[in-house]
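#lab-general

N.A. 3:47 PM
ok so I finally got the sequence cleaned up, no stray characters, all 289 residues accounted for. can someone with queue access submit it? mine expired

B.Y. 3:52 PM
send it over

N.A. 3:53 PM
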Amino acid sequence: MKKIVSIQGIRGAFHQEAAERYFGSTIEINECITFRQLVESVEMGEAHYGIMAIENSLVGSILPNYALIRESSLQITGEIYIGIVQNLIAHHGESIDSISEVRSHPMALAQCADFFLKHPSIRLVECEDTALCAKQIAELKLRGVATVASENAAREYGLDVIAPSIESNKENYTRFLILEKKSLPTIQSGANKASITFTAKHKPGSLLHILKPFADNGINMTMLQSLPIVGSKWEYVFHADLVFDSILKFQAVLEIAKEHTSSLKILGLYRSHEMQVQHEPAENLVHYC
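B.Y. 4:20 PM
back already:
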């Protein structure tokens, strides 16, 4: 049976590229316009997996996605980084000089800020998805309009790349998370990374007391992000990624950190991108408490 993977966007989106690199090209793609739809499609059983962009090396984290994962019934079971090459694409015969408007996802536009500073006459319009913009330009036969998207999107919708690789920094990577339904809490064998969410007790030094045990035990915190708690003035929920050598040591240190939290939840235990050679079969999953 084919794996069904939900992506944000439509065919030609970078989410499709990430999904096919992680799971292979034989998967069935389930298109979702929004990230919320992506999460709901996996929760409802319309897809076996979801793949969700969470941060970009140039423009940072997609903050609402942390809340979506935290509030969902899904768990993180993997990650993949892919290099992002942004291209200006439009109908055949168009050139940069003929383009008066560029429509694309705000993250894609932000990644190409230097290029557009050199072309101030071009109007920038934010939209929901890079590939969707490409599809609309093709189907509506829009002239003088381009989008910032992948080369795959250009091929998918019969458009031309009129300016290749326009991202501001060529070291442009996006990190994607693999999401699955949380039937039983599981981790992949060889897991060396954890994503957690927690709230600190509302007293001086709480955050330091939470983080210090990890540092003292050689557990590397690769990401720490705070988001305001809705309805609680000046209180925050934290998301963190931690890389460790021993799952047993991680679990022991986590118990120490818990003493200084109001709440703590493991969103996923999995192999980091660097450790991930291929997707781990379900039969190699082990339970954790």
